[in-house]
Specification:
Blueprint (H helix, E strand, L loop, with lengths): L14 H12 L3 H9 L2 H14 L5 E5 L5 H6 L6 E6 L2 H14 L5 E5 L12 E7 L8 H11 E12 L7 H20 L3 H13 L4 H10 L2 E8 L4 E7 L1
Parallel strand pairs: 1-2, 1-4, 2-3, 4-5
Antiparallel strand pairs: 5-7, 6-7
Helix pairs in contact: 7-8
The structure holds S-adenosylmethionine (SAM).
């Protein structure tokens, strides 16, 4: 399945190339903007993911589309022996590496440049794979999910955090105002890359969420897919077994 919303609609390059360029461009102020956009609520949702994962007592975790590395840092609380953060944008990973150096977490956390749709790991490698706000940027969603299934160990779990669209008043109306008006405005004021924030909003509106994403996970081969909508459905945590 390919998603045709691309960051720079006026360019002919493929989605993957454009997404990489866009995140390289905004890497310097991504963290600040992320907090403003979610009013800091994403931190609570990320911590919920960590609580779910703790119950598995994982030894190894792969955080795909790790960006500036916030998930691996929080995942340290699971006491996993090894956490790898993988991303396609070297700009985002530079920010992540600086954080890990400052926190002196290099023994537990490592960052690797790579593509979610062609993971550089053998089959059955990780106890847990996480993806926060990453899967809607994949060029080929099903290919990325199949790769995750491949590298998960037999009793491994996938935990996803992704934007979704609320179905009911007042979150439905609030969400529309937030993504269609506020998000592009924030982008215009704070970012050098104005198209990036239009893309982040547009891609959230067309991305399959909830039951649709659950069907795709099952089609790819995941089992026991559980949905946990957050704040009326502005984001959803998905937990799936291999
Ligand atoms: C919205 S950011 C999310 C970053 C981080 N996970 C977080 O929660 O803040 C999306 C990230 O996905 C990465 N990404 C997009 N497509 C990717 C791919 N095919 N493989 C690996 N990373 C990818 C981007 O470079 C970017 O860092």
């Amino acid at each position: 399945m390919s998603n045709t919303i691309k960051p720079y609609q006026d360019q002919t390059s493929d989605k993957k190339t454009q997404v990489t360029e866009m995140f390289d461009n905004i890497s310097g102020n991504y963290d600040r903007l992320n907090r403003v956009i979610t009013f800091g609520m994403d931190i609570g949702w990320r911590k919920k993911m960590v609580e779910i994962i703790k119950k598995k007592s994982p030894k190894s975790i792969l955080d795909i589309a790790t960006g500036t590395g916030d998930m691996p840092i929080l995942l340290k609380d699971t006491n996993a022996e090894k956490i790898i953060g993988l991303d396609i944008s070297s700009g985002m990973l530079s920010v992540a590496k600086e954080k890990i150096k400052k926190l002196q977490l290099q023994d537990i956390i490592a960052f690797e440049l790579g593509d979610a749709e062609s993971l550089p790991y053998p089959n059955d490698t990780f106890d847990v794979v996480t993806v926060s706000y990453g899967i809607r940027n994949f060029q080929d969603l099903e290919k990325g999910l199949s790769e995750i299934l491949r590298v998960l160990s037999a009793d491994g779990i996938l935990v996803i955090l992704e934007t979704s669209v609320p179905d009911h008043f007042p979150m439905k109306q609030g969400y529309w105002l937030h993504t269609k008006l506020l998000l592009p405005l924030i982008g215009k004021i704070f970012s050098k890359d104005k198209q990036a924030y239009t893309y982040l909003s547009d891609s959230a509106h067309v991305f399959p969420y909830g039951e649709k994403l659950k069907s795709i996970l099952i089609k790819v081969g995941f089992k026991n897919v559980d949905l946990k909508p957050q704040l009326g459905g502005v984001s959803t945590i998905y937990v799936a077994d291999k």
